[in-house]
Design brief:
Blueprint lengths: L9 E5 H7 L15 E7 L4 E5 L13 E6 L2 E2 L8 E3 L13 E8 L3 H4 L2
Antiparallel strand pairs: 1-4, 2-3, 2-7, 4-5, 4-6
Length: 116
């Protein structure tokens, strides 16, 4: 079994860049009602992680959350890729999901999401 080293260098795209290209934040201004938006990241094995949009915005944090497709300059191995979410400042890597297949931007104010 192959393991991703904690000191490995991840290469890919910052989540803020993905959100900007997807126009997930109106006028690129994360404020007001847009602060209730979050990303639901889904993996091939059914694992899911949640990232609040302010966690991706440089106006709110110094952290850069990455959707990685490389490790130390090489493509991710099949058991980690083709994409892996890397949340570098989490004390535990629980949100660093492997084999990411989908990223949805949702709004916590949406009643359908909040119904249990």
């Amino acid at each position: 079994m192959q393991h991703l080293r904690l000191n490995a260098s991840a290469g890919g795209c910052g989540e803020v860049d993905i959100l900007t290209k997807a126009e997930a934040v109106p006028n690129h201004q994360l404020r007001g009602k847009a602060l209730s938006k979050f990303m639901l990241v889904s993996a091939a094995d059914g694992y899911q992680a949640v990232i609040a949009l302010p966690e991706t915005d440089p106006d709110f944090t110094d952290q850069t959350i990455i959707l990685a497709n490389k490790m130390d300059g090489e493509e991710l191995p099949p058991n980690f890729g083709p994409y892996r979410l890397v949340v570098p400042q989490d004390k535990r890597p629980a949100r660093s999901a492997m084999r990411v297949t989908r990223i949805e931007v949702l709004d916590a104010r949406n009643k359908e999401i909040n119904d249990y």
